[in-house]
Amino acid sequence: MPKSRIELRFGGTGGQGLLLSAKMLADALAAEGKHVAQSQTYEPTSRGGFCNADLVIAGGEVDYPLPIAFDHLVLLDKMAIKPSWPRLKPGALVIADTRLCPELPAGDVRLHHLPLSRTALELGSERVTNIVALGVLVEMTGICKRKSIEQVVRADAPRGFLDLNMDALAAGYALATPVPAAAS
Amino acid sequence: MNVVDTRRAKPAAKLLSGNAACAAGAIAAGCKFFAGYPITPSSEIAERLATLLPRNNGVFVQMEDEIAAMAAVIGASMGGVKALTATSGPGFSLKQENIGYAAGAEIPCVIVNVMRGGPSTGMPTRPSQADIMQSRYGSHGDYPIIVLAPASAREIYDETIRAFDLAEICRSPVVLLYDQVIAQSSETVALGAAPAAHAERKRASGPRETYKPFAVGADGIPAMARPGDGYRTHTTGLTHGEDGFPTQNPEAVDRNLSRLFTKLDHHRELIDSWETVRCDDADVVIVAIGISARAAKRAVELCRAEGKRVGLFRPITLWPFPEAALREAVKTARAVLVPELNLGQLRHEVERLLGRDRVEGINLINGEPIGPAQIAARASQLASEA
After folding, report:
1. What angle is formed at CA B173 by the lines to CA B45 and CA B295, rounded to 5 degrees?
2. Complex ipTM, two decimals?
């Protein structure tokens, strides 16, 4: 496997906007000149069921477009844990929602259990949980520039929901930044 | 009017799904008509063309079902325009009768079949490669057909354009066959400028009084009458003679039906297409299409890194099968491995050509793709035995 190849997944349930997050990130990466393959599996229902959106990022042309083992995993529903967890690379980054994935298996991972959906609710809509997660991922991994993802979100967000989406992205950045421990 | 900026040497890469690439390719090829009935995982082609065709002086029709959609495509082509339909397994089954009509009556048209798990309605959102034989032999009777099997978004764009060209040149239905993963995955693709010139069917010309709709010259392709040009023509699904009217005269029937096959033989140089990866010294050659070929490509690299001499032969034209190229590719190979998402349809053809002794398959029918590691493991083993 070429070292430059990075594989990641947005895992959850149908209707959470996982595919949208993956497509936005893929567009941002493509704009930066990276080679990307974005794939997904979903159930034949418009809501519910295990759903995932995956990205393979490479310096050159992507030969096999599907992920083999994840460098990064975003979990927005417990349904996605079982099919995704065994495919984590050792030391992989896992970003999981505290409310929707309350319990996680043990493993050699860098786990960030964060209130993604609660943050989205506080912003005004649980529907932007995917964008909060996207903000966390971009900030933690530096996988693309903030500017690149912001440009895509600006272009893709439905009119009337742009501010909410930009706020969600910013909230994601903030969640990714550890709060300095208070002096005791 | 679309103006293409040719000053830009390298177009920016954009994220494009296989199905979106197909729609873009159809427009670039000069397609002016789409009729279809939406079905997962092909619906994005119809969705895109519903927007793109009206903007490009074309017509989009959602029909009542797949049978009618195929009929409408044939009608549009007889009316003189390049026409396309897109579907998946269950819809492809429904279209078969009319695909046979298009083959027999020599109506140029393009049919996309995005393969999902079957039989019947099967697995709408999971990949399969189990329509390989149906794409060739799905309609009744003896007839030839061209089937192209692209393996990436970029290649779907190119092969869609080529499908229209071949349909026009050979007066034949052409099937674009690819799986759900290739269809719905998006990849960064840099599309160049659309081809400036398109292949066009041979049109009736010369004196109207002596025109015979199925009379041919050396290339075996009859000139097609365009409505309004004043040539008398007749089209039927019944076996017909040079005048286009039904006949069961054995000599006339044999001449016309045999010509359907020989006309493709005359154009094999245009039709045949394939890719080889490191076959020159290979002890083991993998033969695969679609997502299985993408996995095999990685498997070749994994094996080569271990010092195992493994190569890949990937038919891009699936039917007629590029047999001469396959024989050349396996010249040094002592084993041939055919990974596919069915129980041996591609292997069946490879065995027919190479014999059964050195050919084996890796088969999966549970809706999951075959990964590179599984192919590499078996190929590596075979290379060690070889």
Report:
1. 55
2. 0.91
